[in-house]
Amino acid sequence: xxxxxxxxxxxxxxxxxxxxxSVIEGMGYEMxxxxxxxxxxxxxxxxxxxxxxxxxxxxxxxxxxxxxxKPLVTFVSGCILPADEKKFLKLFDLVFRMNELxxxxxMLHQCGVATEFSAMHPLNDLxxxxxxxxFWQVDPTYSSExxxxxxxxxxCDKFCSYCAVPxxxxxxxxxxxDDILAEVKKLVERDxxxxxxxxxxxxxxxxxxxxxxxxxxxxxxxVGELGQRSGKDFWLYFTxxxxxxxxxxxxxxxxxxxxxxxxxxxxxxxxxxxxxxxxNRNHSIEDYLKIVDDIRELLPxxxxxxxxxxxxxxxxxxxxxxxxxxxxxxxxxxxYIAKYSPRVGARSARWEDDISPQVKSERLxxxxxxxxxxxxxxxxxxVGKVYRVLIDGRxxxxxxxxxxxxxxxxxxxxxxxxxDRVGTICDVEITSVAELxxxxxxxxxx
Length: 446
Description:
The chain has helices spanning 11-26, 50-66, 82-88, 104-110, 165-168, 177-189, 216-230, 248-256, 273-278, 285-298, 317-330, 357-380; strands spanning 2-7, 30-31, 40-46, 73-79, 94-95, 147-151, 153-154, 173-174, 194-198, 235-239, 263-265, 303-310, 334-339, 386-394, 402-406, 411-414, 425-433, 438-445. It is of the alpha/beta class. The chain has four domains: 2-125, Rossmann fold, CATH 3.40.50; 144-261, 2-Layer Sandwich (Transcription Regulator spoIIAA), CATH 3.30.750.210; 296-380, Transcription Regulator spoIIAA; 386-445, CATH 2.40.50.140. The strands form five sheets. The chain has a five-stranded parallel sheet with strand order 2-1-3-4-5, sandwiched between helices. One of its GO terms (molecular function) is 4 iron, 4 sulfur cluster binding. It is an enzyme of class 2 (transferase).
């Protein structure tokens, strides 16, 4: 029996998929990446962007056609809006939410799926203190031997006007810090090199359990102390924080421990005050720049990434230029720039999508040009210097080359090195650069 799980969307969905795979493997299934081989096939969906949800409809249309030729059971989970969930119920054999993951074997059995699921399966021993977070107690089947995602928080209380996440994942819930630290400890002992703490608003960790849980800064310090005691060489990242909850003590914690990576992903979404209010971001440009100044002061080597939306409802040319000015001021190392698209369920879906596709593309190109220029200036200063790089695979474009990322998550093409260095941290001398990437040669393996 073979099962294929297709993952769409963000790193949180990838983490969810790793737990779904654990449950399915516990039922006696062999996992495959080839859809045609599977008799059980599912998708971890993303309702945040229309393109991602369109892929789900395309997949299920194809899979349902296969049912005419072979036995096949389909399922869907993940980040799903109520409107999409209602439609999926008519298309998939099974629709379940992540909080229902421990019941997946029973649900599949009711769908007629033959399994080797045993009464001794560890899922039967899960505690039911909070039915929304039971799935965190499922040990994931990690998709990499040297990189791992650890969820620490789920849901969102911010209600940005363009975002559907509060309606797909619900309100913020923090995972128990003891469980988080136990999972991180296991990964460190396995010699995992890059660990990422995940949450929709990761730095709001603990705010829903004041007096019961530690703060996000305290959680980082505990991981930092764990790293010091272990003597292991690894980097810990987190994504995505919200500027409203990004406090100086978080940055101070990162500065105090070598294993806490000097890389900050801080979504701004717009450089215009009026547009930020329309987006319901609840932070000002002044607030954002204060955080950036704190990062530059306490973490002088840190890279800064961001997210920006262009073509949001009502955005003017002047407001777009304010975003460009902010990018010039901050000099981001990377910016994930997206053209706005309304999502049913989000508040802005009720507003006119009044920016044409052509103008959205032009505005994306405008901000991309700024990013390329500021990123290149930063990268040029790296030439001739040696940086630690986590080698993560073969380069598909250059024979004999490898790919990797610096501690600051800047992509590097490594021109020399054998494949046995994949999954190791090496010292790499940067020999040349491009706008958004680096090239170098290995100097030492750690």
